[in-house]
Amino acid sequence: MNKVKQGPRTLLFPMPSVLIGSEVEGKPNFMTVAWCGIASHQPPTVSVAIRKGRHTLKGIDALRCFSVNIPTSKMAKVVDFCGIYSGKDRDKSNLFTVNRGENPHIPLIKECPVNLECNLLHSLDLGSHTLIIGEIIQTYVREDCMRGKNVDPLLVDPLIYSTSSETYHKLGQVIAQAFQVGKEL
Fold first, then answer.
1. 13, exposed or middle or buried, with CB in 10 Å at 0-12, 13-18, 19+?
2. Domain residues of the chain, as ranges?
């Protein structure tokens, strides 16, 4: 089958839809981000690309900390709202039940089954976006998303975003055991 040239595009599947939290001028603020991923195992770090000028980035720069909150697929409407409207123009502090973890300046969303509490390690100017690297200082997982000691992604039911179609999705079925199925070759 032939392939169609697309030019440089930001296509990577799947992309999570996460809510980045920061405290801005004493208030919790949340924004939607799809460009987020694990950056390192040791120390545990996460990378997040945020468009310059975002209200949430102002809080991250000032306090050098933030949260990554993983919403469920049922939260699509409020996640979309947080991506459409800026905290500069809309107060988003009352959209969620806000918890605090080990750092009292990091707002965590109770309704999200997974929360990553992060300290800012690095910021890198990449043009339209600033890439922030955060060290994960604590992880919180809702008990009903656990199978024994393991987090079950199907129970977390994370919201997934598709850049190419601008649509939200949810995870599908398990198809194979990682680090095992390849041994069959």
1. exposed
2. 15-184
